[in-house]
Structure formats: C-alpha cells, structure tokens
Amino acid sequence: MGGARGAAWVVAGACWVLGLGLADGQRALPYQDQALPTDQRVADLASRMTLDEKISQLTHESAAIPRLGVPAYNWWSEGLHGVARSGFATLFPQAIGMAATWNAPLLGQVGTVISTEARAKYNEAMRHDLHSIYYGLSFWSPNINIFRDPRWGRGQETYGEDPYLTSRLGVAFVEGLQGTDAKYLKVIATPKHFAVHSGPESTRHTANVEPSPHDLWDTYLPAFRATITEGKADSIMCAYNAVDGDPACASKLLLGDTLRRDWGFQGFVTSDCGAIDDFYDNPGHHASADAETAAVAAIKAGTDTSCGDTFRSMAGAIKRGLATEADVDVPLKRLLTARFRLGMFDDQAKVAYASIPFSEVDSAAHRDLALKTARESMVLLKNDGVLPLQSGVKTIAVIGPNAASLIALEGNYNAIPSKPVLPVDGIESEFSGAKVLYAQGSPYAEGLAMPAPRTLFHPDAESETEGLKAEYFAKPDPTGKPVVTRVDKQIDFDWSGGSPAAGVPLEAFAVRWTGTIGVPTPGAYTFRTRVAFCYPCGESEAFSVFVDGKQVSAFVTPPSGSHDSLSKDFTLNLTDSRRHALRVEYVHKGPLFGAGVSLDWIPKAGDLLPGALAAAEKANVVLAFVGLSPALEGEEMPVHVPGFSGGDRTDVKLPEAQEKMLEAVAATGKPMVVVLLNGSALAVNWAKEHAAGILEAWYPGEAGGTAIAETLSGKNNPAGRLPVTFYTGVEQLPAFDDYGMKDRTYRYFKGKPLFEFGDGLSYTTFGYSGLRLSARKLKAGDALTVKVSVKNTGKVAGDEVAEVYLTPPETNVSAVRELVGFKRVHLEAGESRRLSFVVDARGLSQVDEGGARHVESGEYGVRVAGSQVGGVAEAFAVTGRVMVAR
User: Fold this and answer.
1) Would you tell me how many other CB atoms lie within 10 Å of the CB of residue 242?
2) E strand residue ranges, 194-334
3) How far, in Å, are 239, 259, 504 from residue 5 at the CA level?
4) In what order do the strands lie in the sheet with 766-773?
5) Quick check: 467 and 404 in contact, CB under 8 A?
6) Which residues neighbour 796 within 8 Å (Cβ) at sequence distance 6 or greater?
7) Cβ(174)–Cβ(189) under 8 Å?
8) Is the dihedral of CA 302, 842, 157, 196 positive or negative?
9) Three-class SS of residue 790?
C-alpha cells in the first residue's frame, strides 16, 4: 500500500461481499448465522466442502471457494517491528533494540500500533478485493527463539538471550497484536520458531538438535509457554530443524505432548516456509519418502497449514490409504476457526476492528511512538565525561559506514519507513549550530557493497551542496515534465508498495537523478545498481547509468518478472578526481512489491580513510558510526567475506576495516564516541579501552537518527540495557552448533565478558535502599514479594531499570543467577519510588537434569540493582519441595 500518499490495487479473483451478503428473505445457512457458537459454524462450513476444497485451505495460499462465499486468503504476513512488505508503515527498532528498552508495557503499545496498521491495511485491501500475501491478519511474529550465540545472523529478530525477559516482552507484544475485544481477534500472533532454533543458518534444513532435558525446559521452551498460556497466541510456527530425531513440524513431543496436551493450545500451527519439504527433500531430514508421506506426518503430528505446496499432496495420500478425510478435517477446522475469530465471515459493521481507517497507517502519533521506542532502546556502554556533548561544540566529524545507511535503520523483516532519519541527518538537525563534516571512512568489510556516499555527488559542477537533482515522473518513463523535483543526498531508497513522492503513482513511475560524481582519488571503482528487496517478485524494474553522457550500465527485469538477482555491477575508470556528469534513470512498474533503488559501490578501505582523517582533524569531536549491517547478518544470505558466512558470523569482532579506521582516527587525538548499529553483540575491545564513549543503538528504526542525536546531546537520557552478553571474542564461546547452554549467556557463563547482560549507563545516578522480602523463610510453592526503594541521586531526570536477580541453591545444572523481575521507571532528580516485585513459584523454581521443574528447599539470594552487580541484596530460605508444571 502507499501509506499516507495513496494506494493502488490489484484485483485478485471474484468480488467477495464479506458479512453474509444475503438477499432479502434468504435464510442464512448455519455457518452464516452469527448467533451460533463458532464451533458449530465451523463444523457446518467444513461439512459443505469437497475433499479437494478442504485440501485447498491447508496451504498459506488458501484458495477461494466461490460457491460457499469463502474468499481466498493468504496466511503469510510479517510484523516483527512494523507491518512489513506492504507499503509504508511505522518502522520501530529491530526486535533486539526493542528488547533493550526492558519495557514490557512499551512493547504492548508497539504491538497495538502494528495491529492497528495491519487492520487498516487489511480493511483497505478488502475494499479493493485484494487477497495478497502480506495484506492478511495472521502475523508471523514475534521471534522468541533464545539468542544463545551472538554468531547467529537472525538473533537480531529476537528479544535476546534470557528466557524471562523474552517471555515478558513476548507476552506483551502478543497481547498488543491480538487486541482486547471479547469476541474478535485484532490480528493473530505467531510466536516462532518452535523450537530449539537459533542457527547456524547453513544447516537449518538438515540439523537435528538434541538438547538435554534440562536445557530444553529451562532455556528453549519457557518463552513459548508464556506466549501460549499467558499471551494466548492463536498460532505458532514450527521450525525447520529436527529435535531429538523428529522434524519440528512432525514432533509429537513438541506439537502433541507439550503444545496441545500440557499447554492446552487451541489455535493452529503453521510451518516455516518449505519446512515440510525438508522432510524428504535433499538436503533435508530424510524423515519421509515423498511429499505425500511428509504431508501426512506433519498433519497427524499437529501442523495445520504449510507454507508451501506440500499439503496439496493429501489427496494422493488419501488415495494411497495413508490418511483419511477425517485427518484433513482436523487442521481445516482449526484454520476456519481462526478466520471466524478474525471476523472474516461476519457482518463487518459488527466487527469493531473492521472500522479502523487507512489514515491510521504511518500516522504522526505512531511515528512519535517509534521515536520514543528508539530513545528507550539506546544503551550507553561507556562515557568518560564527553557525553552529553556540549551545546557549544563547533565542528563535529561524523564518520563510518553506518552514518548514512538506510538498511542500518531498518534491520530485517522490516516495515517500509516513509520518513527515515539517517544518523548524519539527525546529527545535523540536533546540532544545528555546529558544522557537521561527514565522511564514510571505511567499508563494512573488504569486498562488501555499501551505498555510495553523498560526498561523491553534487547537483552541478560548481555546487557545494551534496546530492543529486532528482526528478520524479508520474509515468514509467523519465521524460517530459516531472511532478516533483528535489535534491536527494544519495540514491538509497526503499519504496516497496509505496509512492516515492506526492503525486507519483506507486504502480508505475520513473525517477531521473542528474548532477556530478567525483571519486576520492583517480582509479578504477566498482559500482552497483540495486533494486529493493522483493518477495515474491513480479514487478518490472529497469535502471540505466550514464557518466559523461555515455551509458556505463543498464538492467531490465527478465520478462518472467521473477528476479532473484536485483543488482548489476559496473566499473568506472576515472583518471582524475574532477567532477564528471552523472545521470541515473530508474523505472518501476507494479503496485505491490519491490520498488526502490540504490546506487552502491565496493570501495577499498584505503580509498575512504583519508576523508575520515581530514574530517577528524578539523573537528572538536568525532562520532564514529560503525558496526554491522543486515547485508552482513541475516537469514540464509549469500555472504562470504572475512568474519561472515551465509548470514551468520564466524567472528564477533568489529570487522577489521572499521577497527583500523577507529585506530587511525583516534591517533589524531580528537575525542571519539563510537556509535554501534548492529543486531548482535560485538567484541569492541579496542573501543572499550580507547574511545571516549560507546553508545549501542542497534538497528533503531525510522527515527533512529533523531534518537541517537538526542541521546548524544543529552535531550534523551539513555537507560537501555543489554539483552545479550557482549563477549571479548569467540574464544569465550562453545562451538556455534553446540546447543548446550553450559558457558553460554549470563546465566551459565562464568568468565568475564566485555559487557554484561543488563548493563547500561545513564547521565544521572541511582541508589537502592530498603530492600524488604515478604518472608525470610518461605514455604515451597508460595510467592515471594520483593520491595525496594530507588532514588535518582543525580542532577538530571532519567529512567532507571531495576533488575531483580535470583541466586538459587547450587546444583550440577543451576544457573549462576537468573533474572526474575524488572521495571523501568522515570525519576526526576532527587525523586524516590518504592517498587514491588512478586516472584511466583515458577520464578523461584529450577529445572533438574531430567527436565522436571521444582521449587527446591535451600538457601537463596535476591539482588535488586541497575545491573547484575551493586544495588541491595538479601538472603532467604525455602522449606519443602514442590513440582511446577513445565
């Protein structure tokens, strides 16, 4: 969709009238009678379907059944940190950044905004009879896998390494998504990937993970339990990998015994995409002989819908006697129940969520919440007094590969932001009285493409303005009169499903950029034109590049409309550093996916460092924006450069090119603040020792540049906390593919990390006092109440995150300590507040070696502080022994 700038639609299938559409005097069939219980309506509708019609409902692309008034429905939508891949929407910080807020109520608000925008988009889609992928109401998020190892590329999608923190944030997010209506779900949340899934990406389709019973029930399953039993998530996604020899999507242990029997789950299970194919495909699990036996195995185990076509094989399986029609009825009824609970077959006038207007999408109020969330996600890791920056600072050097990178705001599985604020632009706005000198400084890593920096471009040969003249045309042809003319600082845009400018139709437009290009030193430079991510792809994309009037590159989407490769490299051999005429033309056709283009380059580190040094020499302070990129870490990626492999990392150090830039710039003697943008822990050992300050900003969303700048200026007092441990290097970690929790995460790691889980500084100070426990001797099974006073002992207002840690009696498998409570509170200077935490039997329990959970007798300790150390502590004892349901 086109966000606030309008929308265009593809009509798919017949025109369905939702909400019965009965003629006067026509009697409603039982499934059309809204007065009947849902289970009766579901049973009636299912009974009227043929076997082929039933099977057609079991994939993520459920077919229309015109004779019954059942519209087509696509079960695949994404909403990890904003409604994704369906036009402009509010983009919040990546999940790992939201976890750094340590603010569960805030994540509930974020979930509420995402579901509001999802309903608004769905309502508009229904008005235009659009039944496409990404425009539905079943959302495949949150990702609540435990981020057990920082090398996992998808760890950015999670809430970190701790089961308790993940549980609390996950429940809040699920509740925000699904809404508060007593009858209807706002959207359906789908916690994923169930279970024991956290890399490596390269083996996810073949790996058989055999966790110990202790690790399974202590680490890998608690967050799933919480989102199902407390959050009441109506769906769950099973994983690619196998667990204890059975594919996760055919696991009796996971789907039967645990999910449905023990946890009482009544919703539906969806497979990860292609996961059922992995039962029999090569490479795969070799658990099934073919598609028919795979489909039967998954359905009988409890998987209800497949992302992919495997379940279409059920007709053949029934003919072979491998299954019966009754086997098909089980998942069918669960899926139909979900659609009825979403109000899809009811009078829309009676479904409150059906009235949410499209104007809610990307609204000012929602953008304000994105900024608030980004502010709260900032984690200050070091400050020798340079921060906050003095208001009178005259010249600021902004350097580094993440200073002006759109993708570093977005993360992955992201919404499309309409008004993203890049870090360098946020700095220029916040420090308007200072001169800001920008230099890219270094590549992410040698050999990796990155956006060509604005410093290469000027609108004409004489201008000092950075950027290019941009002309936007309301037709797929860059000729005639443009509807919008402006200066774009760089060519790095993501418009998937949205219009790039007012008056430009999203389904067909063109852009022409003109001006000059000048490289740092004479030589050969590799450039790359790249169109935006799309899945599925179906658009027609074309671009051309001209230098000094000569065409140097051109690309057109293949006629099929399927384009896995969305980029093309070209080389510029420039014998001088003068400005050369540049023209770039881009044409887009297709309303739903894929609009957007970037002009990248693959620079050598030596080409960029002189610019960073020159800027630093002229500046009073250097802000170095370094870290990672979703182009380096992510899901099954074709990336193989030093330190990275296939989306995962082989090392946790800052890439060498960036480290060398930091060291060289530090040699100028200017104070340097390192700002990290990344989705996982980094071993920034040199920066901890030598930088004046370190700010962890994650992939901070659309308002990231503003939030970072306000934190550096002091307008935002940082209070984020690390949701993961920052290790000094891979030598502190077990093998990546070892799923044992020994020596992993703050709970089981006994070494000294670079930064601890829960760490985070402030511009003020806080003190703790008056710790009181409800009992010094507690009967097993009873809850413990912990009360404490926290005071802002500094001179400025700020937030504090009070963290409650339990030290249990030591066993062969006990944790060093465990988080059992947290609260984020705002305190004015000098203000005190009394906080209360209730730690129930589950919070006081431990999982033994056999996987059973008990509250054990023995001596315990409780500590309340702003981190794992300090604060106040007390001891108490538990008498007796009580089993706790796992």
Assistant:
1) 24
2) 208-209, 235-238, 242-243, 246-247, 268-271
3) 38, 43, 9
4) 766-773, 784-792, 832-839
5) no
6) 714, 717, 763, 764, 829
7) yes
8) negative
9) strand
> What's the rounded Cα separation, in Å, for the pair 472 and 481?
9
**Interatomic CA distance for residues 509 and 496, integer angstroms:** 13
Q: What is the mean pLDDT of residues 802-820?
A: 97
- Would you call 91 helix, strand, or coil by DSSP? coil
Q: Give me the residues paired with residue 218 across strands.
A: none
Helix axes 38-47, 325-341, angle to 10 degrees: 130
Number of H helices, E strands in the chain: 19, 39
Q: Helix %, strand %, coil % for the chain, to 5?
A: 25, 25, 50
Mean pLDDT (whole number) for 859-886: 97
Helices 163-178 and 104-127: crossing angle in degrees, nearest 10, is 30
Cα–Cα distance measured from residue 623 to residue 671, given in angstroms and rounded to the nearest whole number: 9
Structure tokens at 710: 């306000």
Cα separation of 875 and 880, whole Å? Answer: 17
Asked whether the beta carbons of 513 and 550 are under 8 A apart, the reply is: no
Residues 702 and 121: their CA atoms lie apart, in Å, by: 19
Whole-number pLDDT of residue 567? 83
Is residue 367 within 8 A of residue 90, CB to CB? The reply is yes
Q: Measuring CA to CA, which residue among 131, 145, 37 is closest to residue 96?
A: 145
Note the pLDDT of residue 302: 98
Nearest to 690 by CA among 645, 659, 714, 712: 659
Residues marked as catalytic: 272, 633
| 331 has pLDDT over 50 | yes
- pLDDT given at position 628: 98
Residue 418 identity: S
261, burial (CB in 10 Å: exposed 0-12, middle 13-18, buried 19+) = exposed
What angle (nearest 5°) sits at the alpha carbon of residue 821, between those of residues 817 and 827? 120
pLDDT digit string, tens, across residues 187-232: 999 999 999 999 999 999 999 999 999 999 999 999 999 999 999 9
Q: Name the residue among 504, 509, 204, 136 with its Cα closest to residue 342.
A: 136
Q: Is the pLDDT of residue 25 over 70?
A: no
d(CA 360, CA 119): 9
Alpha-carbon Rg for the chain in angstroms: 28
Upstream peptide bond of 163 is cis (omega within 30 degrees of 0):
no
Q: Calculate the alpha carbon distances from 881 to 513, 637, 852, 867, 884 in Å.
A: 72, 49, 12, 30, 10
Question: In 222-324, which residue ranges form alpha helices assigned H by DSSP?
Answer: 222-229, 291-301, 314-319
CA dist., res. 487 & res. 513, Å (int)? 9
Report the residue count for the chain: 886
Using CB atoms within 10 Å of the CB of residue 607, give its burial: 0 to 12 exposed, 13 to 18 middle, 19+ buried. Answer: middle
Strand intervals (E) in 34-180: 61-62, 73-74, 138-139
Cβ atoms of residues 818 and 757 within 8 Å: no
Distance CA 278, CA 275 (A): 5
Burial class (CB in 10 A: 0-12, 13-18, 19+), 502: exposed
- Residue 208 sits at φ, ψ, to 5 deg, of -110, 115
What's the pLDDT band for 361 if we cut at 50, 70, 90? very high
Burial 274-308 (b: 16+ CB within 10 A, else e): bbbbbbbbeebbebbeebbbbbbbbbbbbbbbbbb
Tokens of 164: 């308790």
Helices (H), 418-476: 423-430
Cα dihedral: 636, 638, 644, 650 (round 10)? 50
pLDDT band for position 22 (50/70/90)? low
